[in-house]
Specification:
The protein has a domain at 30-44 and 54-110. The longest helix has 22 residues, at 58-79. It has helices at residues 3-20, 34-53, 58-79, 86-107. By secondary structure, it is an all-alpha fold. α2 runs parallel beside α4.
Length: 120
């Protein structure tokens, strides 16, 4: 068997393995966080809308998206041990409240995409 054929078979094996894995593995009941997930989706939509309308500058949007990534990472860390504790949920809720306030504050400041100097 030639080298090309071996590489092709290897590539196919990797592809089959990748597609065979469940993208949403089953979670234990104590690790589900639907409220956190829904709020994250809504906050991401608010950020997208702010960029689209020009209310958020690129830098502001980048900062807000990073904040959402941090919350997502924190959520994943909370799930690692198989149980999201009430304290972990409270911390996630606190961080999401702060992120929501940050989105509001940055969307309503005087800076816009078309107006980087901040004079409206």
């Amino acid at each position: 068997m030639g080298l090309r054929m071996r590489l092709l078979l290897l590539a196919v094996a990797f592809a089959v393995t990748a597609y065979a894995q469940d993208p949403n593995p089953p979670q234990t009941p104590g690790t589900k966080t639907p409220v956190v997930r829904e709020r994250q989706m809504k906050q991401k939509a608010r950020i997208r809308q702010g960029v689209k309308s020009g209310e958020l500058t690129k830098g502001e949007a980048r900062k807000l998206r990073q904040e959402q990534k941090t919350i997502q990472a924190e959520k994943q860390m909370a799930k690692v041990d198989g149980k999201v504790t009430p304290a972990e949920r409270a911390k996630l809720r606190h961080d999401q409240n702060k992120a929501s306030k940050d989105i509001y504050r940055l969307k309503h400041n005087k800076r816009t995409q078309g107006n980087p100097a901040g004079t409206k």
